[in-house]
TrEMBL record:
UniProt xrefs under Gene3D superfamilies: Cysteine proteinases (3.90.70.10), Zinc/RING finger domain, C3HC4 (zinc finger) (3.30.40.10)
InterPro entries registered for this protein in UniProt: Papain-like_cys_pep_sf (IPR038765), Peptidase_C19 (IPR050164), Peptidase_C19_UCH (IPR001394), USP (IPR028889), USP_CS (IPR018200), Znf_RING/FYVE/PHD (IPR013083), Znf_UBP (IPR001607)
Name assigned to this protein: Ubiquitin carboxyl-terminal hydrolase
Domain UBP-type: start-end pairs: 62-170
Keyword Heme in record: no
Length: 567
């Protein structure tokens, strides 16, 4: 492994303020620490990207026939190592949860919370890497730290992995050498003299171009979606370099540029509308459209235009990074107890608001119903262990992987005859904890013998009843399970009927709630937002994991109690 220079070009080692924290100054002077950090990064990146090398390992001769012998040996050696990387799991309990930490000083891997904390207290080691998002955590600071030398090492490892993946996909393609731009003294002087700071408000209305309120309301939620905004404002998709016709990623890039150029007059998204008409013909015309249908169609187009993979569970495009999740479906045979598990990728969660029995239903009630067991009739399920015979069974949904931005709830019921709107008021919380509805929480509760009942069939086999999820699950069941807390940042509202109604949106920005009604913008209140005519709800994780390579920002929207605690 090639070593990094101890002193970075960005700072002097004596300058402690340039370190991620004061505790990092002694370790980062040691090459062993940097090499250990590189090992953690290489392990995490290899495991995350090993699916890209499976094809190469199965057909190595064809894949590398264009390479010279030296490159061929290097590529085959690297790819075989990556393909054979074992599943990452906690060294203590063997748990393969999403939040695994690796100790930089000894490369111990442990699950977030109990086991890694125990290791830290026993060893006295201070620094860890979160293997999913590659963030560095200091236990003395009790916070994530960002050091320029460590970020430089991360950039180098990302570049190395991208190069290997590129070789694996197309060995004959020539690579352009990547060089960061470092302005010269003359260029810096020109920037100081000629450069001008532009105000970036982001509060800009959109003109109605003829029954396009459905589009305007959805676009405002994307404009103020922090990870989505960071992606396009950091030039991850440059419309000036793209050759695709009617590219919605280019139109989205242009939209962000126009909204954040400092102008305060309403903007007319005419080219955006024209491109979506050309790429999605069912949305063409000046009749009122469904905001949810437009939203999903737009995401699919951006996914395709950004080179998204057909297998959405492996896709790393901006759409699936921000909105992609995974549902888990378990079908349990009531006769033999056999459990069949299936996984479905999602971009949103559609909740049933019609069949709620509560008098004043809340969004928690919707998720409660969504993850509750559903009885399947004899004709709905065939059990293979029971001799491929029809059996009664129960089906239960849970959320396997939660997205960074969650979209839920719908109010239109579609049938062959007509589309009707469901006018049931739903109490929407400004904060949402989805931990009890995750697959890991439900599985933990099922395996706790004190929390479930055991049934016996006529043949004496045990059958575990599907768990009915409750948001007040005992803390001992949820112990060790990562918390998935979300805050509401955007709402698409709908008033009136499907064909003649009107869409507006509420957006939380600058510590205030705003109402966007096409080109009109006004301040609103939390109460009005919570009790509005909700159609689509946009929740974002309360703390987004930061990654300098994907430009995902941290965001915390504190409650009143949290603000008081911090003070």
């Amino acid at each position: 492994m090639s070593a990094l220079p101890v002193a970075s070009v960005f700072r002097n080692l004596s300058d402690e303020s340039s370190n991620g924290c004061k505790h990092l100054v002694p370790p980062i002077k040691d090459l062993t620490f940097i090499r250990s950090y590189q090992t953690c990064l290489r392990l995490a990146l290899s495991y995350k990207n090993k699916h890209n090398f499976v094809k190469l390992s199965k057909n190595e001769e064809f894949a590398v026939e264009y390479l010279d012998e030296k490159k061929k040996k290097i590529l085959l050696k690297e790819s075989n190592v990556i393909v054979n990387v074992p599943t990452l799991m906690c060294s203590t309990c063997g748990n393969c949860c999403d939040r695994l930490l690796a100790c930089i000083q000894c490369v111990f891997i442990g699950c977030h919370g109990k086991h890694f904390t125990e290791h830290q207290f026993k060893s006295g080691h201070l620094f860890s890497v979160e293997l999913n998002y590659l963030n560095v955590f200091c236990f003395k600071c009790k916070d994530y730290i960002y050091d320029l030398d460590l970020e430089r090492a991360l950039d180098m490892e990302n570049l190395r992995m991208d190069s290997l993946i590129s070789f694996a996909k197309d060995p004959s393609c020539k690579r352009v050498k990547y060089n960061k731009w470092h302005p010269s003294s003359q260029e810096m002087e020109m920037i100081r003299k000629k450069g001008k700071a532009l105000p970036c408000s982001g509060l800009r209305g959109l003109r109605n171009l003829g029954s396009t309120c459905f589009m305007n309301s959805v676009l405002q939620t994307l404009i103020h979606n922090q990870p989505f905004r960071s992606h396009f404002l950091s030039d991850r998709h440059n419309r000036n370099l793209c050759s695709l016709k009617h590219c919605m990623a280019c139109e989205t890039d242009k939209l962000f540029s126009m909204i954040y150029d400092g102008s305060k007059t309403p903007y007319s998204p005419t080219t955006f509308l024209h491109s979506i008409w050309c790429s999605q013909s069912h949305l063409a015309g000046y009749s009122e459209k469904d905001a949810h249908e437009f939203f999903i169609s737009l995401l699919n187009e951006v996914h395709n235009n950004c080179g998204g993979l057909h297998n959405s569970s492996e896709c790393q495009c901006i759409v699936h990074q921000v909105f992609g999740g995974l549902l888990q479906s378990e079908v349990t045979c009531n006769n033999c107890g056999n459990v069949s598990t299936a996984f479905d990728p999602i971009l949103d969660i559609s909740l049933d608001v019609k069949a709620l029995g509560a008098k004043n239903p809340t969004l928690y009630d919707c998720f409660q119903k969504f993850t509750s067991p559903e009885k399947l009739g004899v004709n709905d399920y065939i059990c293979t262990p029971c001799g491929k015979s029809n059996q009664e069974a129960s089906k239960q949904l849970s959320i396997k992987n939660l997205p960074s931005v969650l979209i839920s709830i719908q109010r239109f019921e579609h049938s062959t005859a007509q589309t009707t709107k469901i006018e049931i008021p739903i109490v929407v919380p400004l904060e949402l904890d989805l931990t009890p509805f995750t697959s890991q929480s439900i599985y933990s509760a099922k395996t706790d013998s004190k929390k479930i009942k055991i049934k016996f069939n006529k043949n004496g086999s045990k059958v575990s009843s599907p768990l009915r999820v409750n948001k007040f699950l005992p803390s001992e069941i949820l112990d060790g399970i990562p918390s998935f807390k979300y805050v509401l940042f955007g709402v698409v509202n709908h008033t009136g009927k499907m064909d003649t109604g009107h869409y507006t949106s509420n957006i939380y920005t600058r510590d205030e709630w705003f109402l966007f009604d096409d080109h009109n913008i006004s301040v609103t209140t939390e109460k009005e937002v919570s009790n509005g005519n909700h159609y689509l709800l946009f929740y974002i994780k309360k703390t987004l994991e930061y990654s300098p390579t994907t430009a995902v920002e941290n965001t915390i929207v504190p409650t009143q109690s949290e603000s008081e605690t911090e003070d």
